[in-house]
Amino acid sequence: MRTYDFSPLWRSTIGFDRLFDLAEMAQRAGEDNYPPYNIERLSEDRYQISLAVAGFAPNEIAITAEQNVVTIEGSKAEKAERDFLYRGISTRSFKRQFNLADYVQVKSAAFDNGLLKIELVREIPEAMKPRRIAINGISTDNVQKLEAKAA
After folding, report:
1. I need a surface site. Which of 28, 44, 96, 102 has the fewest CB within 10 A?
2. Greater confidence, 69 or 26?
3. Predicted model pTM
4. Contact residues for 146 (Cβ-Cβ < 8 A; gap 6+)
5. Which residues form the SHSP domain (predicted)?
6. Domain positions in the chain
7. Which of 123, 110, 119, 122 is nearest to 49 (CA)?
């Protein structure tokens, strides 16, 4: 895999620190693929992360939501030593992190048939949503009426 030097961009950009950090982390990632997961877009502003956590109970999994990061950690409780002839279901401890975009929040988590499903929603504050600006003192109501007359 190629590595890229972002230092020239650091000199000429402001406020993109998080983006460059994510790109550098992606370059270094010799990421462990356990547990396997899916990321789905359910609608324009709704997402779902599904992790295959067979062999784990809900009380052995911890989900932590911090600023722009959701962390899922699993640790199997130690039980009496068992004599496996073949062990194909992994129960090793894991820690998986997902970086979230601005305004994406964890809404809920559910455990169903060996899948941990985490619901995410992007909620943009009203102040950040687009709004119509009055031109020459004409209110937005008048603008909408003018648009209706023109149509």
Report:
1. 44
2. 69
3. 0.67
4. 138
5. 28-138
6. 1-31, 34-126
7. 119
Place of tokens 């000199």: 11
Are the CB atoms for 31 and 38 separated by under 8 Å? Answer: no
Amino acid in position 47: Y
Three-state DSSP state, 59: helix
Residue pointed to by tokens 């199997």: 76
Rounded Cα–Cα distance for residues 64 and 72 (Å): 7
Rounded to whole angstroms, how far apart are CA atoms 145 and 59?
58
Which residue in 109, 105, 90 sits closest to 36, CA to CA? 90
Q: Which of 17-21, 72-76, 127-131, 143-147 has the lowest mean pLDDT?
A: 143-147
What integer pLDDT is reported at residue 38 of this predicted model? 94
* Calpha distance 119→110 (Å, rounded): 8
